[in-house]
Amino acid sequence: MVAATSAWTPAAASVDASIEPSQIALGESAQLTIMTSGDGTLSMTLPVVSGLEFRVVAQSRRIEIINGATIASTSTIIRVTPEEAGVFTIPGVTPKSPPLVLRVNPKGGASSSLAPLPGFNSSASGGAAANGIRLTPDGSAFVRLEVPKREIYVGESIPAEIQVGMRNGFAAASNLPKLNSGDFTLNNLSPQPEQSARVIDGKPFTVFTWHSLLSAIKPGTYSLNFAAPVTVRIRTQPRGDSMLDDLLGDPFMQNFFGASITKNITVTSPDTAFTVLPLPARGRPPDFGGAVGSFKISTDISSTTNTAGDPLTLRMHVNGAGNFDRVESNMLAGDAQWKTYQPKATFKQADPTGYHGEKIFEQPLIASQPGVQTIPALAFSFFDPATRRYETAQSAPLRLTVSPSVADRAAGPPPALAKAAATPVEDSHSGLRPDHAAADASTDTLVPMYMRPQYLIATSALALLFGSGWLALRRRKRNARDLRRRHERLRQETIDACRKQMAAAATAGDPALFFSAARFALQQNLSGIWQIEPEHITTAELDSRLGPDHEDIRQLFALADEANYSGGAAHAADFVRWTSVVQRRLLEEEKS
Amino acid sequence: MTRFMACMLLAATSVFAVSSSHAQQALPSLASPPPSSSSTFTSTSVSGSTSAPGYSASALFNFGNAYARAGKPGLAVLNYERAKLLDPNDPDIESNLRHVREASGLPTQPPAGLDRLPRIASPQILSWIGVLGLLIAGASMLARQAYPTHRGKFLASALLGFCALGVTLGCALSVWPTLHEAVVVGHSIPVRVSPTLIEEPLFVLSEAEIVRVNGEHDGFMLVKTRAGRAGWAPSSNLAPIVPKP
To answer: Is A452's Cβ below 8 Å from some Cβ in B?
Structure first.
C-alpha cells in the first residue's frame, strides 16, 4: 500500500499539505496530511528528512458531484515520527509546495499533549469527573479512592478501595498504585486486584480494585491521592479528522494500521481530604496498647482437668474490626499460682485487608499447685471511634482441677498400688512374672556399691597406699643402687690414682711408696668385693678370706709392711713384676 | 617390709569395712526415716502395717508389676530399671521389663558387651571382688619390689588382682550411663529446641522411653534419645532412674 501511494499522476491537480501538531514531544508522532484535488497529473514522493521517519498510514479518495460537476480529491495521511529532538524542516511534497516545520521537544510532560481517543466525549476527558471519576486527558484511564469516612483518629485503620480503570484496548496497568502522602500509611495492600468491567460514557473499561488499610500517623488536616503507572496507547492521528476517526476508532484498526504507539504514563486520583483527630488523653486505660476499633474478647483453656507441672494453653480470642496490628496482650502475668510464659499471637483475617478478623493469643501455663484453680478474668482495652471513648473488654474467669504431678505421686505410690505391691500377685495371665514375696534388705540409694562415693574413696585410698608403698620401695632400691655405683666409681678412681702412684714410684725407685700404693689399690679392689672398709683388709683378713692361690697378694702386703718399716731396696725388675701382679689381680677381680 | 604390707592390708580392710557399712544400709537402717528424695519409691513391708525406708529390689519389682497392671508403662519401667540396679541378675525383672517395653511398642534388645558384666553377681559381691583384686594386685606389686627373687610369681598374682579389679571397673562403666538416664512417665511428651513451651515441638517422646539427661533448666531437662535426637522436655514428665539426693 505504501508503494502504491509513493507516486501518482493526477491531471491539473492542486496539492495542499499540512502537519499537525507542529510541535510534539520526542516519542510522539505528528500527522502529515496531503490533500490533492483536481484532474491534473502530479508527481509526488515521500519526503526524506534526517531524524524523521515518514510512513503512509492511510489514503482515501472522495468524489463529489456539485451541480453536475465531478470533483475528485485524495487524502493521504503520513505519520511523522521523530528520532531525536529538534526543529525539522520538511520540504514540500511538490516543487511548488512550501516547506513545513516540525518542532520536536525533549521527553517529559507530554500527557497534556495526548490526543483524545476517537469518539470520546471531550466533556468527560481531561478533568471534570464523571460520577466521581477523573479520566486522563485522553480518556484512557482513571484512578479513584473510596474510603468509608474522612474523619479518622491517629492510629485508626480504615478500609480503602483503590480503583484503577483502563479503557479496554487503550490502557494497561503496569504496576501497583502508590500512595502520594507522607502523613498516611497504606497497609495490607491486596496483592491481586479484583477485576470488573464498567462502562463509562458508553466506553468499556476494565476496573482493577485493590483493597487496603489506610491509617494516619499524626493529627491534622491532610489530603492524599494515589498514582498508578499505566501504559496507554496513544493515537498518532490528530484530532479533527472525522474520516480517519471513523476508520481508526477501533483499537484493532489502529493496531492494524499502526496509527498508535504505547506510552507509560502515571495516572493520579483526585485529592481526598482527611481530618485526623488525636486519641484523647482523658480516660486512657493503663493497659491501652494503641488498638483502635471495635473488639470483643473471650477466653478458653485447653483442658479443665490437668496435672500439676503439665502445661496448659490459655487462649484469648479478640474479635472485631480495627487495627489488629496494634492489638496486643500480656494475658496472665504475675500470678503466683501459675507459671506463665510469653503468649504467642495468631491472626485470622476475615477480609483481604485484615480489617475484620480474630486475633488469638495462646499462653502456656503451668499450675504450681494441685487442687481447684481459677484463672482470673482477662481484660483488653481499646479506643472505639464510634463511641469516641476508651473501652475495656473483659472475659469470664476459668476454673479447672489440677491433680498432683507424676513426680509428686512418685514420692509414694497410690494407695491402691501400694496395697497391690505389698501383696504378692500371681500374674501369669498378663505375661508378667509374679510379684516377689520376700522383702530383702533395703538401701538408701540405688547407686551400686562399687559406684558410691564411700567405696570409691576407700578404694582410691587403698590404691594410693599401695602406690605410695610401691614407689617408696622402688625409690629405696634405686637410692641403694645409686650409692653403690657412687662408691664403685670412687673406688675405681682411687685405684687409678694408685696405679699412677705405683708407676711414679717405680720410676723414682721408691719401694716404700710403690708397695704402699700397690697394697692400697688391692685393698680398694677387695673392699668393693667383700663390702667392707678398705682399712679393714689386713693380712689376717686376707688369710681368712683368700685361698692358697692368692699367695702373691699376701706376699705383696708383707712387702709393703717391710718397705714401710725397713725401707728395703728393690730392683727395677721387682717393680715390673709386682706391677703386673697387681694389674692381673685387678683385672681378674673386675672380670669376676 | 612384711610389717609394712601387713599394716597396709589392715588399714585398707578397716577403711573399706567402715565405708561399706556406712554405704550399705542393713537391718538397723529399717528404723530410719525414708529418703527425702521426692521421686523415690519407698519399699513397703509385706504386711503393709509399717513402711520400710530405702530401696528394695523386690519392692521395686512389685511396684513395677502394680504399675504395669494399672496401665502405666512409664512408671512400671522406671521401677523395673531401679530394681535392676539393685538386683541386676534377677531374671524376673528383666523379663517383666522386656514385656512392658514390648507392650508399649518400644524396642527391646538383649544386653551386649559390657552391659552383661553387672549381671554376673550382685553389686555387693562385685564391690568386694574389686577390693580383693586391689588388695591382691597392690600386695603383689609391693612384694615384687621387696623380693626380687620371686618376681615372676608376684607378677602373675598382680595380674590376677588387676583382672578382678577390671571386672568391677567394667561394671561401673556399664552402669554409669544408667545413672544419668530418665524414664518418660507421660504420654507423648513434646521435645522442644529450647526450655520454653512456646517453641514448636521437635519430636515426641513415647511413654516408657528411656532418655539420657544432659542438663536441667527451669523445669526442663535436656534429653537425648537412644536414636541420638536431643531437645528439652518438661521435667514433670521425666523420672530419673537414679533420683538426685
So the answer is: yes
Residue A409's closest chain B neighbor by CA?
Answer: B39
Judge whether A457 lies within some domain.
no
B residues 50-79 near A, CB within 8 Å? 52-59, 61-63, 65-70, 74-75, 78
Q: Burial of A286 by CB count in 10 Å (0-12 exposed, 13-18 middle, 19+ buried)?
A: exposed
What one-character-per-residue DSSP string does B57-89 give? HHHHHHHHHHHHHTT-HHHHHHHHHHHHHH-TT
Q: Is B3 on the interface with A (CB under 8 A)?
A: no
Tell me whether residue A119 is in a domain. Answer: no
Among A residues 304-363, those touching chain B with beta carbons less than 8 Å apart: 307-311, 339, 341-342, 344
In chain A, the percentage of residues whose pLDDT exceeds 90 is 11
Contact indicator for B61, B93 with CB cutoff of 8 Å: yes
Chain B contact set for A311 (CB, 8 A): 197, 234
Between strands A379-384 and B210-217, the pairing is unpaired
The C-alpha cell 511428651 sits at B189
Span A93-122, average pLDDT: 58
- What are the chain B neighbours of A309 within 8 Å (beta carbons)? 219, 234-237
Give the CA angle between residues A332, A337, A342 to the nearest 5°. 35
CA distance A417 to chain B (A): 6
Taking an 8 Å cut-off on Cβ atoms, the answer to whether B39 and A450 are in contact is no
For strands A260-268 and A220-235, give the pairing: antiparallel
State the ipTM, two decimals: 0.78
Number of domains in chain A: 4
Q: Are both A270 and A155 inside the same structural domain? A: yes
Give the CATH number, domain containing residue A353: 2.60.40
Which of A349, A373, A406 terminates a domain? The answer is A406
For B:12-31, CB contacts with A below 8 A are 12, 15-16, 18-20, 22-27, 29-30
A51-65, A398-412, A484-498, A559-573, range with the lowest pLDDT: A398-412
Domain stops at, among A351, A372, A406: A406
Residues A272 and A288 in one domain: no
Write out A523-584 in H/E/C secondary structure. Answer: HHHHHHHHCCCHHHCCHHHHHHHCCHHHHHHHHHHHHHHHHHHCCCCCCHHHHHHHHHHHHH
Q: Look at B197 and A450 and tell me if their CB atoms are within 8 Å.
A: no
Across the interface, do A449 and B20 touch by the CB < 8 Å criterion? Answer: yes
Q: How confident is the model at residue A430 (pLDDT cuts 50, 70, 90)?
A: low
Q: In chain A, pLDDT over 70 holds for what percent of residues?
A: 81
A369-418 per-position pLDDT tens digit? 778 888 888 889 999 999 999 999 988 888 888 877 655 554 445 555 55
Residue A401, H or E segment: strand A398-403
- Which residue segment(s) compose the domain that A94 sits in? 2-108
| pLDDT mean over A264-274 | 87
Mark whether A268 and A148 lie in a shared domain.
yes
Q: Which of B145, B178, B189 to mutate: most A Cβ within 10 Å? A: B145
Residue A88: pLDDT band (50, 70, 90) is confident
A373 and A346 housed in the same domain: yes
Contacts of A174 (CB under 8 A, 6+ apart): A229, A230, A231, A264
